[in-house]
Amino acid sequence: MIAPTSFRLVAATGIHRGDRPYQQDQVAILPHPRTAGCLMAVVADGMGGKSGGRKAADQVLMTARQVFDRYVPGTEEATTILAQLLNEAHLMIKLTAIAFEEEPHSTLASFIVNPDLTADILHAGDSRVYHFRGPEMLYRTLDHSFVQRLVNEGQITEEEANVHPQSNLLTGCLGTQQDPPLSAHRLRGLQIGDSLLACSDGLWHYFTPKELGAIVHTLPPREAAEMLVSKARHRARGGGDNLSMALVRVEARG
Q1: Phi and psi dihedrals of 181, rounded to 5?
Q2: Residue 216 and residue 152: Cα distance in Å, rounded?
Q3: Do 152 and 133 form a contact (C-beta atoms < 8 A)?
Q4: Do 27 and 42 form a contact (C-beta atoms < 8 A)?
Q5: What is the pLDDT of residues 135-156, one digit of tens each?
Q6: Which residue pairs, CB below 8 angstroms and at least 24 apart, start in 229-236?
Q7: What is the distance of C-alpha 167 from the center of its chain?
Q8: C-alpha pair distances (Å), 253 with each of 10, 40, 45, 70, 91
Q9: Cα dihedral sign for 62, 64, 67, 70?
């Protein structure tokens, strides 16, 4: 086990409106208020019109701050905190829909890094979390989407999914009548040089895992975030969605 005094977590976020008239994505990296070597990253891709989608994403971030502030690393399970985030944000978004007569929804891609360098991941929708060791992708979440289901069934390839006309059709997210899917994953041993990337589909849509891994490994997190946003914008060619990302890398203390 690596002691918290021997590593540091270096983080950066990126967000851009893309070519849309308004921003509905929200992103945050939250250092734990009392425990060194512990943080939460959250990406929320809001849907449901100009105000509805933003309200949904805002609810996700507000809830994340509240539940993470209550978290006691080493005493509570991080998966429990992430499940609370999912369920409480889902409920608040549904209440917002009733109050404002809108249909706000949001995706969620979130992870908690603990002082013992375990990490817990939870997602709903098509915002993703990637785990890289150096430039190599070791894990990524699987989207709750129609095209991911087709990929899982072997009907289409990942490449075909990216250009499928129904690629934006979700099978699970926050704020719908159905409860959101609870898809959790634990990484048991992060190492020096590992990176975790949470991002909305407005970013990952324009990169292969190999490209993402090369960029997050080669550049410091802030520069990597700037390059990923810039390249996504260039590749969108005037048709880009909102995009957001949270990047965390484990580095040795100098």
Answers
A1: -65, 140
A2: 27
A3: no
A4: yes
A5: 999 999 999 999 899 988 889 8
A6: 229/14, 229/15, 229/16, 229/203, 231/206, 231/207, 232/16, 232/202, 232/203, 232/205, 232/206, 232/207, 233/16, 233/18, 235/206, 236/18, 236/19, 236/206
A7: 18
A8: 11, 20, 34, 28, 41
A9: negative
Place of tokens 């975790």: 196
Q: Within the chain, how many helices (H) and strands (E) appear? A: 7, 11
Per the CB < 8 A criterion, the answer to whether 16 and 24 are in contact is: no
Distance separating alpha carbons of residues 146 and 164, to the nearest angstrom: 10
For position 198, what pLDDT does the model report?
A: 98
Confidence band, pLDDT 50/70/90 cuts, at residue 164: confident
Query: Between 163 and 91, where is the model more confident?
Result: 91
Neighbours of 160 (CB within 10 A): 13
Q: Report pTM.
A: 0.94
